[in-house]
Specification:
This protein has 10 helices and 11 strands. The chain is of the alpha+beta class. The chain folds into 4 domains: about 90 residues, Arc Repressor Mutant, subunit A (Orthogonal Bundle); about 45 residues; about 80 residues, SH3 type barrels (Roll); about 90 residues, no CATH class. The protein has a 5-stranded antiparallel sheet with strand order 6-5-4-3-7. Strands 9-10-8-11 form a 4-stranded antiparallel sheet. A hairpin with a 2-residue loop joins strand 1 and strand 2. Helix 1 crosses helix 2. The relative contact order is 0.07. The model has no long low-confidence stretch (mean pLDDT about 85).
Length: about 325
């Protein structure tokens, strides 16, 4: 029998409870924890009988075959905890039914992987196949992906994504790198974006004493998130187009400017195969050397970081404002040595 989304969420909550030796989860405490989390995620709570069915299924061979500790009690009440403290469903293989269901889903998705709008499937499908051992046994020796497993903000991605779907207003405890004390921000969340192995939340900030308006929060600077019942403010921003005028995530009130760049011959082919800014990068046909390209973007921090990453292989031809900014940064770098 295939596992429904609601059931899978309940199993995941139970898994976290069973894995936590710091809390003595009795039957009633388990039920309270499950229902609290389900309501937070926008689902209805469950009755005690349903939770007992869920635990029985998790213990069965048709489910996950988990083993709960015996003889653990809080007074006369049984404590629910894994017999093996290191056990987790995250490390447990899928049962046969789920494997077949996942394989069918992957098969359907694979039909679309060669369409331009589904290019992301070329990266996603091999990862899933390898994670669940549907692919080559020595997959890790065939292909590697850039990732940052130690990234602090990763744990917030799924939670914020659920709040985005539910259009929940959030109270976020946040501390930027230049703040000594954290602060609470009321955010109407709109969009999550990954850039340079970090995640960022875009939303509308409401403040009585400080800044109100569109803001960007780095997920690795978030300390806590709580939903509230405030009315959600909709946005008219087309997020599919929002980033077309810039590199990265820092958008100011400045207008995009046409930037002319000249590259060394040894670098130009790399620039053409991996454009700096694919939406606007163009070849300057009037340059007989064929080494000049233009991009039209907002001059932000990420632009200068990108240009500096090319080192001596790039020269900013124009405009003068961007050229001077590059000169200032290069001179500051020189002073470091």
């Amino acid at each position: 029998m295939a596992i429904t989304k609601g059931a899978q969420i309940r199993y995941s909550i139970l898994d976290r409870c069973f894995s936590n030796p710091a809390i003595n989860y009795t039957k009633i405490k388990l039920l309270d924890t499950i229902n609290s989390k389900l309501i937070e995620l926008g689902y209805d709570g469950i009755a005690l009988r349903q939770m007992q069915y869920d635990i029985a299924f998790m213990e069965s061979s048709e489910g996950f075959g988990i083993e709960l500790a015996q003889g653990l009690n809080d007074g006369r009440k049984r404590i629910f905890r894994y017999a093996d403290p290191k056990f987790s469903l995250a490390d447990h293989p899928l049962n046969q039914s789920d494997q077949e269901q996942l394989k069918t889903t992957l098969s359907i998705l694979s039909r679309y992987r060669y369409r331009e709008e589904f290019e992301w499937l070329d990266e996603l499908l091999p990862r899933i196949e390898a994670a669940f051992e549907f692919a080559h046994n020595d997959y890790s020796s065939l292909i590697s992906y850039q990732s940052n497993r130690d990234y602090v903000g990763q744990s917030w991605v799924g939670k914020i994504y659920n709040y985005l779907i539910q259009k929940k207003v959030l109270e976020i405890t946040y501390r930027s790198f230049n703040q000594e004390q954290s602060e609470n921000r009321i955010i109407h969340p709109y969009h999550l974006k990954q850039f340079n192995n970090r995640w960022f939340l875009f939303g509308h900030q409401i403040s009585e004493n400080g800044y109100s308006g569109l803001t960007t929060l780095a997920l690795d600077r978030i300390l806590d998130i709580l939903p509230n019942d405030n009315k959600f403010i909709e946005t008219h921003i087309e997020w599919g187009d929002y980033f077309d005028e810039m590199i990265g995530v820092s958008k100011s009130d400045e207008k995009p400017v046409l930037i002319t760049l000249r590259f060394r011959e040894s670098r130009i082919k790399y620039i053409d195969t991996k454009p700096i800014h694919g939406a606007t990068q163009k070849n300057v046909t009037t340059d007989p050397s064929g080494l000049t390209r233009t991009i039209e973007v907002i001059p932000n921090r990420e632009l200068y970081q990108k240009l500096l990453s090319f080192g001596e292989d790039v020269t900013v031809v124009s405009p003068e404002s961007v050229k001077q900014k590059m000169i200032e940064k290069i001179q500051q770098m020189k002073e470091n040595y």
